[in-house]
Amino acid sequence: MKHVGNCSWFINWNKLVDELPEVATFRGFETSDTYENPTTIARVEKGETLEYEHVRDQGDLVSAYENNDSLEFVTYSAGKHYPRKIDQLFADWLGVDPAISWISRVGVGKVAAPHIDDEECYWTREHFPNRKLTRYHCHISPPEIGAAFMIEKECYHMLEIGDVVKWPSIDSLHCGVNGSVKDKLLYHFIGAEK
Length: 194
Hints:
Layout: E1 2-6, H1 13-18, E2 25-27, H2 38-45, H3 53-56, H4 59-65, E3 73-77, H5 85-94, E4 96-106, E5 111-115, H6 118-127, E6 133-139, E7 147-151, E8 154-157, E9 163-166, E10 174-178, E11 184-193
Antiparallel strand pairs: 1-9, 2-3, 3-4, 4-11, 5-10, 6-9, 6-11, 7-8, 7-10
């Protein structure tokens, strides 16, 4: 992972977060029968083997969270919940073409269990074939003790609003925990290198 810099000098994350709607898409523990992306659904209907299926339905994960109310996060989509122009501003700063973005919110006392954003990976690879894809996240809520985000073996805690981290790959295993007193929000972005 690599700390890229801070982009809060040209994107007002506080304003964006304040303007997010109350309603977002709940993302809980998902199994193979809960795909949402048309690209992924089409692959399932064709009987294709999905490369990340093994991550979605791990026995340990199921047993840990099937009756556990702490697993919960919501997702906001570009163009629906916040302006797509954010993606272009972010991409221009990084020197890449925008592919896909979303914002995640983990509430107080909640967790996002270890997972790979498989549908986003499938969609991006289909729409940007033969392009090198890079993934980043940006901290868009104030640092709070107890709110942490993990990517593989790295842990991010108390980063400032606008701090951006480049991931090792778009399909890195990651999770988040929020033991703070305020919601934790991240902007996730996948770009195609020029």
